[in-house]
Amino acid sequence: MKIENIELYYLSMPEILDEADGSQDALIVKVEAGGLVGWGECEASPLTSIANFICPKSHSAANPIRDSVINQNINDLNDIKKIIQTVKHKSLMIAQTPHTFSGIEVALLDLLAKKENCPIYSLIGMNDSKPKIAYASVLFGKTPQDTFEVAKKLKNQNFKAIKFGWQNFGLNIKTDEDHLVAAREAIGKDLDLMVDVGAIWGTDVEEAKKRLNIFKNANITWLEEPFFSDAFYEYGELTNKTNLPLAGGESCHSVESAKNMIRFGKVRFIQIDAGIAGGILAGKEICDFAESNNVQYVNHTFTSHLQLSSSLQSYANSSKSLFAEFPQQLKSLAWDLTENHIDIDENGCIDIPTGIGHAIKINQSALEQYKVDVEIYINKEKYF
């Protein structure tokens, strides 16, 4: 069968807030072939990805992604791998390409898994799946007391691991310490506590080192994204000078950049977003490389449960990579987008969905409710 049609749905909350919350808008991908439909989700900046999908050719390595996907065969996994290579070569010089194609790749795998009547993780070579320890992923409170209250609530919901991030953490050492003391006090000594600083220190290793004692006292499981995603030297420098476990990789746009984060950044946890790095197959390749180097693979997601399920497929059966990000402060768009959702069990774990494809069903009414009307014309010709 051939890929007959691809539709992109730009969705948005009525107001986009200036906060580190990726659930405020979305670009949903619908792929049709042979009477089947696959769904995927791109991460970040929907209009940029739409342009990437339909833009006029600039030269031989700057083609619209659409031209490399429409009318291509999709009968087995090798067909999808061929499309991946074509897109890489023909849209190489367009920086948004990994973002855009990631959602398309997920939709292609979802469609093919429906053809084969199996989960995506089975389609890509895994016989089964294993539960993951779900860490509740939330923003720091505006005050340490707010952080305490959120942490206490999440502990009472059976979470065994909690990650706090962003807001204004990283700007003031005393305030940072107060937040971590509050979080640890709320959850007790036995739960895992992770910290995500959202690359706030750029390339400043010394600024990170100033907080080593408060991280040690809070007994954090990892420090996430202390630096920019391409600051491999700085990651490695901080690792060489401390025993603090580092995590990073959510902004890696390729398999090779993720491998370099491991090789030179020396992270102990590599966090990959299926909506950024190239899709589920890219994630699986990164996971295999990570685990062969004694690094744990972790999914990254802060959007819908479509993306959550997709992000879990790459390491579904791994017994070495234990954690899974589980966002807890989604905007209504991200929650309403799907008819079914993934839940934690009494042990604080989540199971990878065992249904067909990624096993998440799109809520059609949400596509209409949150849809942003977009029309793109070039020389009076409608492109989108």
Kindly describe this structure.
Helices cover 38% and strands 17% of the residues. It is an alpha/beta fold. The protein has 2 domains: 5-118 and 364-382, Enolase-like, N-terminal domain (Enolase-like, domain 1), CATH 3.30.390.10; 132-350, Enolase-like C-terminal domain (TIM Barrel), CATH 3.20.20.120. The strands form 3 sheets. Strands 4, 5, 6, 7, 8, 9, 10, 11 and 12 form a 9-stranded mixed beta sheet that branches. The chain is globular and about 60 Å long. The model has no long low-confidence stretch (mean pLDDT 95).
Total of domains:
2
* Number of helices, counting only DSSP H or I runs of 4 residues or more: 15
Which descriptor suits the 3D outline?
Answer: globular
Q: Could you tell me how far the N terminus lies from the C terminus, measured between alpha carbons in angstroms?
A: 25 Å
Most strands sheet: 9 strands, mixed
What is the typical, i.e. mean, pLDDT?
95
**Gyration radius, rounded:** 20 Å
- H/E series, N to C? EEEHHHHHEHEHEHHEHEHEHEHEHEHEE
* Uncertain runs: none
Number of strands: 14
For the record, the CATH architecture of the largest domain stands as Alpha-Beta Barrel
Structural class: alpha/beta
CATH topology title of the largest domain: TIM Barrel
Task: Throw out a few tags for this protein.
384 residues, Enolase-like, domain 1, TIM Barrel, 2 domains, three-stranded antiparallel beta sheet, globular
Quickly describe the structure.
The protein has 384 residues and is α/β, with parallel strands linked by helices. It has helices spanning 46-54, 65-69, 77-90, 97-116, 120-123, 144-156, 173-187, 205-209, 212-218, 232-241, 255-263, 280-292, 305-313, 332-336, 364-369, and strands at 5-12, 25-33, 36-42, 132-139, 161-165, 192-196, 222-224, 246-248, 269-272, 296-299, 323-327, 349-350, 377-378, 381-382.
